[in-house]
Specification:
heterodimer; A: alpha/beta; Rossmann fold; 5-stranded parallel beta sheet; 4-stranded parallel beta sheet; 9 strands; 33% helix; B: Urease, subunit C, domain 1; TIM Barrel; 8-stranded parallel beta sheet
């Protein structure tokens, strides 16, 4: 794997390879010393043009757990504020010879463009409304731990599909892993032609009980330039996931951050069937696995160290303390 | 009659050329076959039997055995970016690109900076064209002052200053009432009104066709009805006012239907389609997300839309191909899709691309392509180029077998945002005679080394 730009690019086997790797990092995470030397001496750039808590912190911690040097650039306060173009920003950061660039950008295709401009491996940490592949991988990881397999499972993705990169990546990832996916929301928030991704479409929660997993999406009011629903109150009345609508057998997921009382009720977030905290925990090990697969995986041997130490080339096996 | 009567070009020597044994095809004039084409003093003097024409003193002899001579093409829709955006294109580079594409005339849009809204603007532009245009250029003026969509320009004065017609291209005319007034004023000043049809609230922040690909890649869509309802609105207004309109760059099947319905109702309406809409669909964007080649307005639509455009080209609902040549510099294009400028260049590749994508696979005939590539003159009251003896020489000499990769040798245009960049096309323009002057020779061809 050269870059992680979209789930669209991945087959089931590649997804499983990353998840299996994440399992082994989960084991490392239970040790006293949680750090491994795999990426020692290599640089990871984290380049965030949009606000983020979960994704940026978990990628940055993942890089540190793998012993990489981390450069973290946020758009606010950087030369981007001074009008520097994306291409020039990437050229500047590429001068540090990073092994990987993790990028979040408000526009679709930004990560793919960056991959054309740099020798570093590029990880798409969310590009506009396009894709958010690491989120989808951690979602599959979380579900796989609970359900063993996604084959034949019915997953409903409910809410603002139109503005959601998570929805697009999840539909692709879940279907690739054998699940049957339904997207549900008011017609104004379901993009025309979404069936082309291989999912079914529903405009009401009437048949929600058929779902094994209910994945609620955040109402992305910050991406809405106009009125897509008459009111959040009416939206919540028709589409909110709450304990009245949720069957105890169903698992509940949400990519965060949650708007309690809008797309999901507070008591549902805190209920035992909610996997939301597990999703966040999975984020760290899955993002470690992504960096590992890109930078130390079989298809990309590490360069011979030129520090004169005569250390063997290639990644240090995980499990050896740094 | 000369294209120069109403259009402007740099003066130069009249062509004195003999095309020896060319395959001549002028479907409108009913000329087809092997001829020696003799051009004297800028006019088609004679179509002689192969080898029969005597070489006049001083004439250039071109061995055209195996080459095709067509009436040169006419593009009713290009952006020369002058004044104000000469970093993208200017009259010289834009008309060189036109000549390289086999065009003997183009009509420049008025959405420059500032827009061409006054007689003074127009007069200055025409002077520049007479100083630097390789092929004759006609200029449109805007319908609304400063293209703001509020008040009519001084249409009568603009026509007296030489405006070929009117257009707010780049933007739709939002106000139905302003559109109506322009159509009323057309009775006073003449001149066709060329329309960029788009309902702005439906297009919203859209950047590509609304459909399965926009849903998959998460880009905001521009629905087909955004275009077609405005075509229907303006056709109804033209019918009511008994006026004439030209619909630009049709992209949606629904719009082709609307034009056909208007024609059937007797409305004076003409329409154009662009090479990129005839050759590409939204699928081009799915995996590339490439705005350099694939972002334009109207957007690339579905395969069904593309087929409807081809059907419209065949049955005459669409009478002409227009490139909507829209140059942009790299820094305006090498940004994420949503941020990139709309538009692609097309003058240098229109013939080759349509020959490769539509004629060679047998989708349309060569005659139809040649006819439609010059079909953009008549809607603006400009005489169609022809090879009939006695007429002004407007000739595109082409090698239908030549293969070339677009962009490999650079572009005549100042910009490089060709939708064909990197494609290998079959068919190439070797030489163009425009308004009686040799406007272009492919370098390797004039040196006798290729293709």
């Amino acid at each position: 794997m050269r870059n992680l730009l979209s789930i669209e690019d991945l087959g089931r086997e590649e997804i499983e390879a990353i998840l299996d790797r994440a399992e082994s990092f989960a084991e490392v995470g239970r040790r006293d010393i949680k750090k491994v030397p795999t990426l020692r001496g290599r640089t990871v750039v984290s380049l965030f043009f949009e606000s983020s808590t979960r994704t940026s912190s978990s990628f940055e911690l993942a890089a540190k757990r793998l012993s990489a040097d981390l450069v973290s650039v946020k758009a606010a306060g950087s030369s981007v504020d001074k009008g520097e173009s994306l291409k020039d920003t990437v050229a500047t950061l590429s001068a540090y010879d990073p092994a990987a660039i993790v990028i979040r950008h408000p526009y679709a295709g930004a990560a793919q463009m960056v991959a054309g401009w740099t020798a570093a491996a590029v990880v798409n940490a969310g590009d506009g409304k396009h894709e958010h592949p690491s989120q989808a991988l951690l979602d599959v990881y979380t579900l796989r731990r609970r359900l063993d397999s996604l084959d034949g499972r019915r997953i409903w993705i409910v809410g603002d599909v139109l503005h959601s990169r998570v929805a697009r990546s999840d539909v692709l990832a879940f279907t690739r892993m054998g699940a049957e996916v339904t997207v549900c929301g008011p017609p104004t928030l379901i993009p025309r032609g979404i069936e082309g991704l291989g999912c079914a479409v529903e405009h009401s929660l009437e048949r929600l009980e058929e779902a094994d997993v209910v994945y609620a999406l955040r109402m992305q009011t910050e991406r809405m330039s106009e009125s897509f629903v008459p009111s959040l109150r009416e939206y919540a009345a028709n589409f909110q996931i709450n304990s009245r609508r949720l069957h105890p057998r169903q698992l509940l997921m949400h990519p965060g951050p949650v708007n309690r009382g809008v797309e999901i009720s507070g008591e549902a977030v805190d209920s035992p069937q909610s996997l939301i905290a597990e999703q966040v925990a999975a984020g760290l090990v899955v993002r470690m696995a992504i960096l590992y697969e890109l930078l130390a995986g079989a298809e990309r041997p590490a360069p011979v160290p030129d520090d004169g130490s005569g250390a063997p080339a290639g990644p240090t096996p995980i499990g050896q303390p740094a | 009659m000369s294209l120069r009567d109403r259009l402007d070009a740099r003066p130069g020597p009249d062509a004195q050329v003999l095309l020896r044994n060319a395959t001549v095809l002028d479907p409108v004039a009913g000329i087809e076959g092997q001829h020696d084409v003799l051009v004297r003093n800028g006019r088609v003097a004679e179509l002689a039997a192969p080898g029969a024409a005597a070489v006049p003193d001083g004439a250039e002899v071109v061995e055209a055995d195996g080459l095709h001579a067509f009436p040169a093409f006419f593009d009713p829709h290009v952006h020369l970016r002058t004044p104000g955006q000469e970093h993208k294109e200017d009259i010289e580079t834009g008309t060189r690109a036109a000549a390289a594409g086999g065009y003997c005339g183009v009509i420049a849009m008025a959405n420059t900076r500032p827009p061409v809204s006054t007689a003074a603007d127009l007069t200055a532009l025409r002077e520049r064209a007479r100083a630097g245009a390789s092929v004759p250029v006609g200029f449109l003026a805007t319908v609304s002052k400063a293209m703001e969509g509020e008040e009519l320009t001084e249409m009568v004065e603009l026509r007296e200053a030489g405006a070929i017609g009117f257009s707010d291209d780049g933007l739709p005319i939002r106000s139905a009432n302003l559109m109506r007034r322009a159509l009323q004023y057309q009775h006073l000043c003449g001149g066709n009104i060329a329309l960029h049809e788009e309902e702005p609230t439906l297009s919203g922040s859209g950047v590509m066709h609304e459909g399965p690909v926009s849903a998959a890649v998460g880009l905001a869509g521009i629905p087909s009805v955004s275009e077609s309802i405005m075509v229907a609105r303006d056709a109804a207004l033209a019918r009511y006012e008994n006026s004439r309109i030209h619909v630009q760059h049709l992209s949606a099947a629904e719009s082709v239907e609307a034009v056909a319905a208007a024609k059937a109702a007797g409305v004076e309406i003409t329409a154009e389609a662009s090479p990129h809409h005839l050759c590409l669909t939204e699928e081009a964007i799915r995996h590339t997300l490439d705005p350099v080649r694939f972002k334009m307005n109207p957007p690339l639509r579905s395969e069904a839309d593309r087929q409807a455009l081809i059907a419209g080209l065949r049955d005459g609902t669409i009478e002409c191909v227009a490139t909507d040549h829209a140059p942009h510099q790299a820094e305006e294009k090498e940004v994420p899709f949503e941020q990139a400028a709309m538009g692609v260049t097309g003058l240098e590749t229109a013939f080759a691309a349509l020959h490769t994508e539509l004629v060679l696979p047998g989708v349309i005939g060569l005659e139809l392509l040649i006819e439609r590539l010059a079909g953009g003159a008549a809607p603006f009251g400009i005489e169609r180029p022809t090879l009939a003896p006695g007429s002004e020489a407007n000739i595109a000499l082409c090698d239908l077998g030549a293969e070339w990769t677009v962009g490999e040798e650079g572009y005549e245009s100042r910009s490089q945002n060709s939708w064909c960049a990197g494609r290998t096309l079959t068919g190439r323009v070797l030489m163009t005679v425009a308004a009686g002057q040799v406007a272009y020779r492919l370098r390797s061809f004039s040196l006798g080394v290729a293709p």
